[in-house]
Prior knowledge:
By secondary structure, the protein is α/β, with parallel strands linked by helices. It has a single domain, classed as 3-Layer(aba) Sandwich (Rossmann fold), CATH 3.40.50.150. The protein contains 9 helices and 7 strands, in the order H-H-E-H-E-H-E-E-H-E-H-H-H-H-E-E. The protein has helices at about 5-20, 25-40, 55-65, 80-85, 130-145, 165-180, 190-195, 200-210, 225-230, and strands spanning about 45-50, 70-75, 95-100, 120, 150-155, 235-245, 245-254. Strands 3-2-1-4-5-7-6 form a 7-stranded mixed β-sheet, with helices on both faces. A hairpin with a 2-residue loop joins strand 6 (about 235-245) and strand 7. The mean pLDDT is about 95. The structure holds S-adenosylmethionine. S-adenosylmethionine binds next to helix 3.
Amino acid sequence: MSAATPAWGRAQLDAWDRQQAAYINRREDRFAVMLDVLAEVAPADAVIVDLACGPGSISDRALRRFPGMTCLAVDYDPVLLALGRLALAEHGERVSFRQADLWDPRWTEVLAGERPHAVLSSTALHWLPADVLTRVYRDVGEVLRPGGLLLNADHLRQPGGRPLFEELGRRDDAATQARDHAAGAQSWDEWFATIAGHPQLAPLAAERARRFAGRPANPDLSLAFHVAALRAARFREAGPVWQHLDDYVVLAQR
Ligand SMILES: C[S@@+](CC[C@H](N)C(=O)[O-])C[C@H]1O[C@@H](n2cnc3c(N)ncnc32)[C@H](O)[C@@H]1O
């Protein structure tokens, strides 16, 4: 097996992107919309937080598109943090991967006093229970600069009593997985087995299992819940800027 070099990390990040895209039909469109909003509103030298970053898909795209920006990439998974550090090594000091658990109210300490211009997140905040998500939005509101942005791309629960909308979402998910897996994308389990099987990352997989043991299932919160929580966290505007079935990009301005 090849050494865990930056080139190996980059190949695994590419495989991660293909693997994630099999679960999210318009994943690249979501990223593009988030970065289009940044292009309009954030300064060219903005500091961005990539919240629950995984191996750094948002950071990588933001750093390529905006040569003056820097990213603080925050996650609690030691395997994905290690992979992100390898895969994004080419960006040098423009990206810094930091370890924090969003369940811990002190998670903002890893920002070391930095006041970001924007906090971006994708396919991650749905794991947080309502009370933790509400507090994380408050925390983000406190660390952002005035006028700063939160952009969250995620699957959100459809409002009740809309079986057709739910069915269309299920069919779209099934068709996307069938298409991408037939084209060679790995499942999550296959992808993770490769990473966790690497001798340099295997020890971190056990620590990852320990950290996430006993965490509750996806609480399946709605767009209305997210918008209300953002408004309660004193964001002056909040709402979707993009939607594909039950997949949204939510924008909020502090
Ligand atoms: C499906 S991945 C998405 C990663 C990346 N944003 C992307 O779109 O490729 C979900 C991420 O949320 C992170 N996560 C889940 N719960 C977390 C928590 N309590 N604190 C920090 N990160 C968390 C996971 O470790 C994982 O990296």
